[in-house]
Task: inverse folding
């Protein structure tokens, strides 16, 4: 993985990064020493290097049980409990895998919305296949996930019988407490632990992400190896300019300080769409608090050059871009020659599609920079487990540093409670009697 | 369709809308009289009422040919040439349709990126099915779409033979000029016209959107009827407060003028995800110019309350929300009771899933408004062709009015050329010799 900030530096003061260097260093040391805000949620920091081959074997063994017994596996989880797995699986999967036969179970994501049609249709589909469930919830009472799991547990038991269902329902939850833990222990489900000190958005390298990724058939050992190597590269003692996480954290704060309020993550590979969704939670939830924080947005390119491209080129000059570029495709396809050349494309004949894509990427970078949009470029060699593992840890480490530079607690999410509290009050949840009365009075 | 701005008005001056009223009126009249900027692109304004039953029959007849001869139909197009069709098809389709047998062709979207793996994998899939192509391009030389069409045309001809291929390749293009028109005429493809005075992002009710939607098996007559009824409701002579497009255009400009720079479109139905993508092009490309314009963003709720929710609740107070709410689901599912109630959900037992969703929606609105986020609510009765037709015209009309209030030409997109010009120069396209030399000199 490489980071290139040469097209961002012209938009910040010459000494801006130097001026931030002490804060970057202090943030890294505070993370390392556990002296920063949110220091009860630093389990992600040395998570990759703590993962043993035996632990990976245990996850793979459970994945094998699901693979052998299920045509579909539903991952029930919301936010950090599905965004990481979805990102990795999509990045590695055939773009049209849904339409083709597979010897691996289909991985479906549910428990992340309260759509009546969505759940009805999910159930309709699951009636036609042998399915399993990975229930991912620290508490087991997150509304979206709990409703879904209640429906699917019953359905799975009806379909296979209670004994057989136990084989294909796996819990990823708290070590000791909560409804999902109680249920898992009572029913005898295989279970994995969400560590207390790893927040949802930093949990993709725990069983939260690793188990679904393994079930989908991908090599989690390589994924973890990539993260481990990046953990070493981003070590607190590495020189700041050779630590990509420190570089990214510093430059995005420097740009933000100039009044650029929106960061747009861009990819040129459709399979990276969900990297943007994962990244939005990671950065938005870590930094969007206390009335501050860069607003995270995402585009797929060149696709969205014909959608958001106009705004990016000519709208308010309050944005900057971070491009995740993949150096080499995994396949090989050339633009064919055509005798008649009615479309005028013969000047591209014999070129690989990716060569055209790379020139679109470079042309876009030049156009956007000329248009006043700072550009940060992150490159990975190819789309595989190892490189994605690197990317994951890089973005996590940079996020921790960046949030501390910004002066927020990057590891809490107090604002997420506000809607839940209102929803429970409106639904007359036991224990919310006072809130119910208050909200009904407010609504009149 | 209803619009409710009561939760937005507290964030703007009491007389803000009244003050904008003359501009709203002037914008509507300028659209009607064709005296505004961009007046050569006003074909969308009375498009719905101009669509005849015979024209719909013609589209349906072509759709039938594709349905009868194809297991998959690739829609090759970028930006406005696919976002509208994708929005409508996704809103109406079973959430898990990909995994289930269908008597309608699979609708695939391509020609909207330059991903080598994407195209390789598309071709790999298409080798296994009988497919057709709808090639949607005004010029026929848009790089992304033209490369894809060159590949698919050859493949389709190889698969079926040239004569049979002609039956299942349809062109939606310019009436007279351009590569796609020339090819269609030469090959004898069935073709439909993209009117000169309808820009891509306003084209979903032309064959650009209608043909793919019809091929997917949906009722385009109802879609058009919804749009026609909304066209009448948004008439220039309707009282402004009963014209939802005028209301929306005014209130979002009033909010923008208070310094809220980002509008987030929200849904509570996963099927509306691509409404957000269509809307982002419509508004971003229409208004993001001359250094101004609201930045359009989208979230899926409650899903993204566990992702962007923290930022929305507590980040910079520079955002507002527009919620598209669906009053009634199309299916029926209740939260089941559970004897043990380990998850504590029995307080919801017997409630429909959608009742929970609606309380999440109300609870979120209250939480976000309390957090300083103005809220505009747009409601439709249900997800069907008629209601989506209403929504389409509503957003288009409001966009035209809104852009004129902002003082930009809402109907051009000059910024989209910048990357193309660089890309062609970098790829040494014939005719770009001077630009090639210049860009190479710049790159050193």
Result:
């Amino acid at each position: 993985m490489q980071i290139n900030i040469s097209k961002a530096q012209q938009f910040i003061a010459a000494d801006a990064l130097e001026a931030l260097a002490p804060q970057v260093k202090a943030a890294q040391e505070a993370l390392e020493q556990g002296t920063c805000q949110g220091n009860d949620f630093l389990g992600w920091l040395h998570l990759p290097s703590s993962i043993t081959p035996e632990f990976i074997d245990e996850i793979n063994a459970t994945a094998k049980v699901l693979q052998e017994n299920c045509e579909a596996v539903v991952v029930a989880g919301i936010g950090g409990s599905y965004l990481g797995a979805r990102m990795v699986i999509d990045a590695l999967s055939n773009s049209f895998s849904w339409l083709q036969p597979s010897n691996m179970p289909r991985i479906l994501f549910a428990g992340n919305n309260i759509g009546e049609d969505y759940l009805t249709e999910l159930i309709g589909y699951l009636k036609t296949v042998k399915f399993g469930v990975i229930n991912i919830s620290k508490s087991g009472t997150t509304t979206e996930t709990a409703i879904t799991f209640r429906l699917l547990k019953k359905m799975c038991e009806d379909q296979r019988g209670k004994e057989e269902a136990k084989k294909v329902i796996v819990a990823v939850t708290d070590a000791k407490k909560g409804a999902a833990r109680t249920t898992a222990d009572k029913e005898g489900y295989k279970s994995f632990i969400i560590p207390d000190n790893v927040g949802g958005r930093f949990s993709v390298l725990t069983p939260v992400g690793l188990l679904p990724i393994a079930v989908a058939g991908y090599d989690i050992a390589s994924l973890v190896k990539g993260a481990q190597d990046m953990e070493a590269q981003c070590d607190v003692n590495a020189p700041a300019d050779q630590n990509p996480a420190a570089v990214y954290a510093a430059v995005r704060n420097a740009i933000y300080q100039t009044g650029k309020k929106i960061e747009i993550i861009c990819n040129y590979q459709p399979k990276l769409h969900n990297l943007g969704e994962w990244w939005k939670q990671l950065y938005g939830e870590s930094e969007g608090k206390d009335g501050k924080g860069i607003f995270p947005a995402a585009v797929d390119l060149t696709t969205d050059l014909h959608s958001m491209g106009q705004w990016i080129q000519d709208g308010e000059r309050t944005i900057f871009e971070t491009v995740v570029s993949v150096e080499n495709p995994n396949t090989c396809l050339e633009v064919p020659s055509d005798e008649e050349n009615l479309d005028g494309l013969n000047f591209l004949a014999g070129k690989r599609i990716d060569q055209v894509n790379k020139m679109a990427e470079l042309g876009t970078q030049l156009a956007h920079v000329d248009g006043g949009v700072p550009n940060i470029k992150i490159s990975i060699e190819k789309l595989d487990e190892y490189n994605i593992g690197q990317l994951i840890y890089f973005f996590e480490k940079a996020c921790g540093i960046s949030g501390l530079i910004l002066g927020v607690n990057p590891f809490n999410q107090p604002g997420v409670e506000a809607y839940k509290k209102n929803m429970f009050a409106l639904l007359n949840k036991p224990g919310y009697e006072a809130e119910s009365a208050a909200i009904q009075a407010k609504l009149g």
Summary: Chain B touches chain A through 134 residues (CB under 8 Å). Chain B has 17 helices and ten strands. The longest strand of chain B covers residues 319-328.
